[in-house]
User: Fold this.
Amino acid sequence: MAKLQSKYDVRPIASTDGMIVEELDTELLIYDTARDKAHCLNPAAATVWKHCDGQKTVEELQALIAPEAGAADSRDMIVGCLRDFQRRHLVTGTTGWLDSERQVSRRELLKRVSVTAAVVVLVPLVTTIVAPTPAAAASCLAGGATCSIGSQCCSGNCSGFTCGPPLRPRGRSPRNS
Amino acid sequence: MAGQQIARMLSGAWRVAPPVLDFDRNLLDGVRPQLLASGTAGLVWRKIRGDQSMTDSPVADVFRDWYRSNALNSARQQQAIAAIFSRLTENKINPIIVKGWSVARLYPELAARPVGDIDLYVAPEDRAKAEQIVRKLPDFPYHVDFEHLALALSKDTVASVFERSEIRELHGTPVRVLGAEDNLRLLAVHFLQHGGWRPLWLCDVAVALENRPPQFDWKRCLGDDQIRINWVESVLVLAHLLLGARIDDTPAADWIAEFPQWPRESILEKWGRLSIETVGQGYFPPVGSMLKPGNFIRAIRHRWDDSIRATVEAGGRFDNSSRLPMKIRWGLKRAAQFYFPRIEH
Assistant:
């Protein structure tokens, strides 16, 4: 009984250090700057993550998602969701407890809950997405990049097929006055 | 032609309610490499997200991922911009941010446009100190560029550029952006300076144009230099002809019927040629690929054939006259740059 009690005392905490969080449409996007990984949380997963405040118990979090699903299903959903979070370093405070919980694959869970179609959209899902790259809109190449002419480089200096430092003396204006 | 399809795909994509897309998923798949390479994936997603026949396709997932990535990168860069402005103003340097985020904020959502470098304008006497401060920023993930404004703002004094600039707040930090007139002129000239190779930059012009404030002063935007007027108006006409930007109430409206055909053809040809390998390298192929004889000849032809850059480099007008003298002049200049890279040309 004591062991069961300890399971229900788990209060996950969302990791926010070094995380950039952005709501987009109905999704929540999280970029882990330390690991250079980006994640996309569907609305159900976003609800859970936002409520991982170190105060709410797993039971309370479970109540937030898919109340229409049966108790066993919603239990499996919250466990799967927290497992996803833990694997992606999005929560703390769940280590140990999750290992002791029954593991249900997402496919199995979706198959089970799809009997009630309305519930499917409420299954929390976390996916890994393309990590943001600053290069996508750049109009010039940074130092060290491969180049063939000077105008490709931000410095204006392409030497030996590599962007080098600016040739102009520092502090001198290009053409402004 | 791929370039035309890209133009169709991006038409009006910067608006709050983008026009309905007349495009099927096979066509989208056909120009996917160019669209991804052009930095317009977020804009494309905005156009297709309401069409289930498109969003059901795996092709669409790529665009949605880039849209999401744009959102995160914008959020990340906003923190970086606020940090850099704080640091520079602490050191009594007053920067203006141009392009990048300063344009992305004009789109209906930041996820529509990717952001890359941080382009800053500072008074010439502050530049060395500003560069030094930026270099010392720990783990700063963005390239900061102080080089970009010469041509577009060369006729203005630093004081007048600052006088017309505006303050926006970003994470509680005041961030200075160009006045609407200077911004539009800069975007237009920047598009030409780079030969018009990136459709995103023409979308930038369109969004700045259609979101200009009611008190927008065309005289201030165009100035009185006839060449610069010609360049800015040319880009406005191109934004209209290629992307459907609304220019009927601008000074460029009268020019649409007489506008030369060659700039449009040159740009569409470049857009059709975009590829992931050339991202960040303009429309030039990577050096490695030029070792193959076929690619080498093609690269030489593309360089020679860039009438837009030849015109800008020569300080010429966009009109119906021959581009040949400008191309020859530019070709010689580039040959000199290649063989004598350490001499200023």
